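Per your request, structure below.
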């Protein structure tokens, strides 16, 4: 078989059929056939990866997933959102996520930024102060001070 880049579905199907045919031959492959299988496998994987579409989770679902994984309640997250009411409204899709909230959730709960927004942001604090995840969850007033220190472009 002539091996070339898989440019379309037809090429992909031919390569898959050829690999399938190798399966029926069992373990009796020549060195040339083994090399052909390796190349075809790489081409098929590359084609599949180019075509694969992985949807990122919706931001609120990403937050709820993180809450579940970390055993957190809405009340414990109130410092990130600016209060219990705002937390509830945001998690129930009645209020949009604020940029400050997105940044804090990313920094302290380690929710991937790509799950919370589509653009990558350069984030940090104006001062050199640090706040641990435990402090952020335990003391909403302290977290509020850090909200005001956020710097992002």
């Amino acid at each position: 078989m002539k091996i070339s880049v898989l440019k379309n579905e037809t090429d992909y199907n031919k390569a898959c059929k050829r690999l399938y045919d190798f399966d029926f031959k069992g373990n009796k492959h020549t060195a040339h056939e083994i090399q052909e299988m390796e190349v075809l496998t790489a081409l098929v994987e590359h084609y599949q990866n180019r075509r694969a579409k992985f949807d990122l989770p919706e931001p609120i679902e990403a937050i709820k997933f993180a809450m579940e994984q970390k055993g957190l309640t809405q009340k414990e997250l109130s410092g990130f959102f600016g209060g219990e009411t705002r937390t509830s409204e945001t998690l129930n899709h009645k209020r949009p996520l604020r940029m400050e909230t997105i940044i804090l959730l990313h920094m302290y709960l380690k929710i991937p930024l790509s799950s919370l927004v589509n653009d990558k942001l350069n984030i940090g604090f104006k001062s050199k102060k640090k706040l641990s995840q435990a402090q952020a969850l335990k003391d909403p007033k302290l977290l509020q001070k850090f909200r005001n220190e956020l710097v992002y472009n």
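The chain has nine helices and two strands.

Regards,
D.
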